[in-house]
Specification:
five-stranded mixed β-sheet, single chain, Pyruvate Kinase, Chain: A, domain 1, about 15% strand
Amino acid sequence: MPGMRDIKRKINSVKNTQKITKAMKMVSAAKMRKAQDAMNAAKPYAKKLTELVNSISSRVSKEMHPFLQPKEYVKSIGVIVVSSDRGLCGAFNNNVIKTFVNFSRQNSDKQIKLITVGRRVDEFVKKRKFNVLDSYVTFGGRVRYDDAVDIGEKVNDYFISDEIDELYVIYNEFKSIVYQTPKVVKLLPVSIDENDEFDTADYIYEPNPALIIKEILPKFLNFNIFSILLESTAGEHGARMAAMDNATRNAGEFIKKLTLTYNKARQAAITKEILDIVNGAEALK
């Protein structure tokens, strides 16, 4: 059994760690609330924008814009993989990376070209020599619309120039504070949701459908990327909050066990001293 001094040192060390994990949980909770508010604020606009794009796209020819035209033969797939810059958030990053690895295996007959968002996934793919077109590791949990526009403009150039034939995004979908699930979403070419019910009225477009489509589809792509980044950020803070909460509770349980061990060692030392005193008194008789 370790000495009492060593046990006391371990107890103090675990208590200090518990203070850190508790503070990190509180910080993540505050950041998560802000990120969740931003995510929820963006959802109504994203929903209406999607409805608008679906409605217009169902009425115009697919030749009006490259985003609407499926490629005859898909040779290369662009994949945006979204992770966090920092760790200590449970399986948040591992789940995204595993989903990407499975996706790349399922599409092993095609070229996979990556755009990584987050330091964790960037480190993973570079060690394994994937084809990385662009990397973004400086968001730091503060996503701006300009960041999404930057990614969207590069994706637009890659798609128009036939550098990629399709675009997918792999990220953690925010289900709840303690539950995020990895998701694969196809962004390009834009596909119309056949389950949506469209207004059958015939509209007159001003200035013309081609110009409207040209203006709205890049914005649709940019805002979809922005919404996904917001959702991933909220999920990251939720995952970190849950992980730090578990670490804090585990530290508490470990402190209880160490304290019990310390008390047993202390009781054994006291008993030994009493026995030594009794034996010494008996020897003097």
